[in-house]
């Protein structure tokens, strides 16, 4: 698999200005793209979805299906959808996964809660194009935000077919390189959040932002993300910030991410969701503190830690 970062900023975009440089780590909010054999997977569409769309167009990825894993509905994770050109191409298909927001469990089953949440951010007068009118084909699935669920996609004749666990157990006719497994991971965040684990062939990646360390979800992450090759975790604040005013905001700090990555036996750790108030100088300091902490831990399993820089790619 290959992971591309198109946005790693948290909460709000943070463009570079005189005296406040963010060009090293980037200013766009959360958007990642994962290539796994025949599968194209997008994780969140913050403001990084605009450059992601440009990248996909330039690569000629038109008329293709995309699996879109949405962690949650905070604006820094969905604000780029209306600016992502592939949504305006009717030959494209997006298989969009999200969760049922708290209080909407009893919404009319015909009214998909994922679609409803995305329609709301693009409703008049907040955006000129209603989400439902974006020309691409769109299919929505809502998961439970409190429990883990597993699902699969199978590549067939250039499309992706959704499969449940029982579909997969009943059939041995799927070729290994044509099937991908996704596991949802409940996270601790205001209004709820889902992490995702993706397994393809012998490679695995876990993506768990936005999350404030909390016993219940720490254990979930340890169990569901066990032995992953790469884990992406939320290290927005410094330890001092997290002990003070920003407690309960739903984010972590880099040292706690190192502890979590070691606890779940991950091989590599990426820190994401950088604070919009932290310029490159501050994030560089945080990265150094984090690497010092990691080095002192002398972990046998965790082989590396780094902060995400927009535009970078990683082989998984
Ligand atoms: Zn966020
Ligand atoms: Zn959030």
UniProtKB/TrEMBL annotation:
InterPro entries: Metallo-B-lactamas, RibonucZ/Hydroxyglut_hydro. Residues 164-274 form the Metallo-beta-lactamase domain. This is Metallo-beta-lactamase domain-containing protein.
């Amino acid at each position: 698999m290959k992971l591309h970062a198109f946005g790693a900023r948290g909460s709000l975009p943070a463009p570079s200005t005189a005296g406040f440089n963010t060009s090293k780590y980037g200013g766009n909010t959360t958007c990642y793209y994962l290539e796994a054999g025949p599968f194209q997977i997008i994780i969140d569409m913050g403001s990084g979805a605009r450059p992601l769309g440009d990248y996909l167009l330039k690569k000629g990825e038109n008329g293709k299906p995309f699996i879109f894993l949405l962690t949650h509905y905070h604006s820094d994770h969905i604000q780029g959808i209306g600016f992502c050109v592939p949504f305006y191409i009717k030959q494209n298909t997006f298989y969009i996964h999200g969760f049922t927001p708290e209080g909407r469990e009893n919404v009319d089953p015909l009214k998909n809660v994922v679609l409803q949440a995305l329609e709301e951010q693009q409703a008049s007068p907040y955006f000129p194009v209603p989400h439902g009118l974006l020309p691409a084909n769109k299919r929505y699935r809502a998961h439970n935000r409190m429990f883990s669920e597993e699902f699969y996609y199978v590549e067939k004749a250039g499309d992706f077919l959704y499969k449940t666990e029982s579909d997969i157990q009943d059939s041995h006719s799927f070729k290994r390189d044509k099937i991908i497994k996704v596991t949802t991971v409940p996270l601790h965040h205001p209004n709820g959040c889902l992490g995702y684990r993706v397994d393809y062939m012998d490679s695995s990646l876990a993506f768990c932002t936005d999350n404030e360390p909390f016993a219940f979800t720490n254990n979930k992450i340890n169990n569901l993300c066990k032995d992953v090759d790469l884990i992406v975790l939320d290290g927005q604040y410094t330890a001092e910030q997290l002990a003070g005013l920003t407690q309960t905001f739903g984010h972590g700090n880099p040292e706690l991410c190192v502890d979590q990555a070691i606890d779940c036996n991950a091989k590599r750790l990426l820190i994401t969701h950088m604070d919009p108030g932290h310029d490159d100088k501050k994030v560089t300091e945080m990265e150094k503190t984090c690497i010092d902490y990691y080095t002192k831990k002398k972990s046998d399993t965790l082989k590396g830690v780094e902060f995400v820089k927009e535009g970078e790619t990683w082989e998984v």
